[in-house]
């Protein structure tokens, strides 16, 4: 029973890590486009979004925080 619980915990952590990476990839893909278009609408330069992507996705340099 103990081994099954440990395996379940390991697999859950692995899945969460994968989901976090996928979420970060989506933000990295679409946030620059959205930022650029929003900047065009208001007539301002888009902000630096790299740190924002990391904060939103909960990822630091491709790793979990």
Describe, in plain words, how this protein is organized in 3D.
- The structure is a single chain.
- The protein is mainly α.
- It has a domain at 18-60.
- Helices cover 75% and strands 6% of the residues.
- It has helices at residues 2-42, 50-57, and strands spanning 59-60, 63-64.
- A two-stranded antiparallel ribbon has the order 1-2.
- α1 runs antiparallel to α2.
- It is rod-shaped and about 60 Å long.
- It starts with a helix and ends with a strand.
- InterPro entries: Ribsml_uS5_D2-typ_fold_subgr.
What is the count of DSSP helices, taking H or I runs of 4+ residues? Answer: 2
> How do the strands of the widest beta sheet line up side by side?
1-2
What pattern of helices and strands is seen along the backbone?
HHEE
Query: How much helix is in the residues?
Result: over 70%
Which residue ranges are poorly predicted, with pLDDT under 50 across at least 5 consecutive positions? Answer: none
Largest sheet: 2 strands, antiparallel
Silhouette: rod-shaped
Question: What is the end-to-end distance?
Answer: 30 Å
Strand content: 5-15%
- The number of strands is 2
| Class derived from helix and strand content | mainly alpha
Q: C-alpha Rg, in Å?
A: 17 Å
The averaged pLDDT comes out at 84
InterPro entries: Ribsml_uS5_D2-typ_fold_subgr (IPR014721)
